[in-house]
Amino acid sequence: MCRWLAYSGTPIRLDELLYRPRHSLIDQSLHARLGVETTNGDGFGVGWYVADSMAEPALYRGTGPAWSDANLREIARSTTSPLFLAHVRASTGTPVQQTNCHPFRFQNWLWVHNGSIRDFALLKRDLVLAVDPELYPAMTGSTDSEVMFHLAVTYGLRDRPIAAVQRTAGLIESVGRAHGVPDPLQMTVATTDGDRIWCFRYSSEGRSRSLFYSTGISALRTLHPDREMLRGLSEETRLVVSEPLGELAGAWQPVPESSYGVIQKGDDELSRFEPSMP
């Protein structure tokens, strides 16, 4: 379906993750190992924040394959950020157009999604009508992912992100049941306000798409004391990815089924995710 990554920590150039690792996100756009599709060439996007700022993030999206976009390479090698989301897309049926490429942005929030709403065309009307009318003009594309984002904003993403996504998932499953759609929701999601990152792994069928988080920097330094790249990273540095960017022993931990995590200053959180009715 898609591949994405979320990074928070010591400011780094975007290309350190998008291009340089052996199994970078750009490599995954051509050679995904754990995704439904091997190739994710139906567009891409990256959204990033300026250091020490929670202002509206910058956004660059394109409709071509990420591996061949020269402008993305130029931006990635010259842009430094402490927090960014990136996404390579494999369409589940909606058109390949810029407004359908992730990340989606609303004010200072970004959202990326891998997965789908089953039979979205059948459920779309009911779901869109549940979006706050004041948010409707902000929806410029046609994907299930963008509708999910605006439902989450409707249900309080800016104040209570976890509850908002739980309510979004609950609504989708309720509407799915009403229309006789089995197992309507499949999702791994990352969303951020520029300070914290919330990540979710859930599916109605209980077999969600792959998702991993990086091992703590202190533990990695102990495991790999000779790795120069680890010395310049703060203890707060963390990555969440659809699939590992490399094969460094002990570097990646699977996100448990039906769970959410919060990347934040101090201790991160990992807990169970359960949909709830709005």
UniProtKB/TrEMBL annotation:
SUPFAM superfamilies found in the cross-reference section: N-terminal nucleophile aminohydrolases (Ntn hydrolases)
Keywords from the named record: Glutamine amidotransferase
Domain Glutamine amidotransferase type-2 residues, every copy: 2-278
Pfam families assigned to the protein according to its UniProt record, in alphabetical order: GATase_4
UniProt xrefs under CDD domains: YafJ
Tagged with keyword Ribonucleoprotein: no
Keyword Transferase attributed: no
Tree of life domain: Bacteria
PANTHER family recorded: GLUTAMINE AMIDOTRANSFERASE DUG3-RELATED
Protein name (record): Class II glutamine amidotransferase
Species per Swiss-Prot/TrEMBL record: Actinoplanes sandaracinus
